[in-house]
Amino acid sequence: MAGILVIAEANEGALAPISGELLGAARKLSAEGAGSVTAFIAGGEALGNELIALGADAAIVDTNPALQGALAEVYLPAVQAALQQSGADIVLIGQTALGRDLGPMLAFALDTAVSMETVDLKYQGKLIATRSCYGGNARAEVSFKNAPAIATVKAKSFDALAPDASRTGTVTTIDVAGEARIKILGVQKAESTGIRLEDAPVVVSGGRGLGDPSGFKMLEELAALLKGATGASRAACDLGWYPPSQQVGLTGKVVSPNLYIAVAISGASQHMAGMAGSKNIVAINKDPEANMVKVAKYAVIDDYRKVIPALIEEIKKLG
């Protein structure tokens, strides 16, 4: 029996955003003929019902408390049990701390392949995954010789469906866990410095064309006024001008804000792929032939050192 198994995740008892996005991807594949959608999650039955509302036809909930540590080696037997129960021949996993380990581990155990850093999926009698390659400078379409086909999917690559409380489906429980060979002694959360790049309604990004890292100070001020986040191109991050955690692109974060302001960014393909889902794109660039200018809804052809301060001043006047 063909179908799709989604490996959902929860944080502190609440579904992680990637879970809804994976179900959105699964529903797309199901509509293309890939079969029914089963979601697996560790936790309580209530999470299973939430997954049904988000698009799963069935949910398998593993109640074993050992899975709460999110170690791939502990998850592996549980996922294998869910895979056998569901009969799925496609497995979708988030490109998360868990998924980066679980995807390859599951593929090795089942003698199949995994597409990492996946940004698009389609079903044409078999799964075809699109992933970044050559350091993010190109994208490759890959298919699978063996089943199940496994893909780890980057955040924001697909939209989550709106919850539908009227949806019905079966929720079953299992109690399976592997043995941990690693002991977690403690977890230290990184300090939050504002809105997450992936969740920001407005993203202001800078590139190598800024000339030096000081230009990001202006972008941060603009982003703060717009209640958004600041991003950067890979070139700027490679130069050490901005933290890699704020990189937008195939090898960084995939964003889809309402407004994306690209400042001094030429528009390399790997960067464009990371922000192509933006609703409105504004380019500020001295080069009228830059790729970013060509795809932007609005473009300002001038030195950002003149444009950004003027824009900040006008926004402040609006209160």
Automatic annotation (TrEMBL):
Binding site for FAD: 208, 233-234, 247-251, 285
GO MF term set: electron transfer activity; flavin adenine dinucleotide binding
Cofactor: FAD
InterPro entries: DHS-like_NAD/FAD-binding_dom, ETF_a/b_N, ETF_a/FixB, ETF_alpha_N, ETF_asu_C, Rossmann-like_a/b/a_fold
Domain Electron transfer flavoprotein alpha/beta-subunit N-terminal residues, every copy: 4-189
Highest taxon above the source species: Bacteria
GO biological process, one term: fatty acid beta-oxidation using acyl-CoA dehydrogenase
Listed SMART domains: ETF
Cross-referenced Pfam families: ETF, ETF_alpha
Residue ranges of the TM segments: none
Record-given protein name: Electron transfer flavoprotein alpha subunit
